[in-house]
Specification:
The protein has 83 residues and is an alpha+beta fold. The protein is built from four helices and three strands.
């Protein structure tokens, strides 16, 4: 799996049990803690995923991430392929 898709999968895993997963806000440290990539690579993944329309990256006091409907559908489709 390409590294940026692993990053998207982590984001999905963090919100998949929420009532409104695309409204959930994820602190970047929650993503960092679950990946074995350097921070600069994770930032690159987040930027690429945002350009692809799969996440929204917002700078508050710290950067936060939200999964878009498109991102949610992408991960669900990949999960279907894997099974």
């Amino acid at each position: 799996m390409e590294n940026k898709w692993q990053t998207l999968q982590v984001i999905f895993d963090l919100v998949k049990n929420d009532n409104q997963p695309t409204k959930s806000i994820i602190q970047t440290n929650m993503i960092i803690a679950r990946l074995n990539f350097p921070w600069d690579e994770i930032v690159q993944h987040l930027n690429e995923l945002q350009q692809d329309g799969l996440i929204i990256l917002t700078q508050l006091s710290t950067a936060v991430v939200s999964l878009t409907n498109k991102g949610l559908q992408h991960v669900a489709a990949q999960s279907d392929i894997a099974h």
